[in-house]
Amino acid sequence: MAWLSARSAEKMVYGQLTKLSTGKTLRVESFKGDRWIEVKKISEDEFLVTEKGYNNVTFSVNLPQLRQTLKKIFEDEFPRSHQLRITTTS
Q1: 79: Cβ contacts below 8 Å, ≥ 6 apart
Q2: The domain containing residue 57 runs over which residues?
């Protein structure tokens, strides 16, 4: 588990997702752990995004849409967070 500044999280998460192996999942949680997002890499350019907290939804996005989607999710789910926890699972 790594703690990351919320200001740099969006850019860092996007970079890690592009390098992630197919089938792996990246999870970003708030400090309290009550809000989180999971992004699973399904194929080279398709991701399954699960959002739990303010919105409880699951949807699929492709690589060109991923950066804009992450930006919107981070604004909605982590509006006042200063630190976020990032974990990678299989």
Answers
A1: none
A2: 2-89
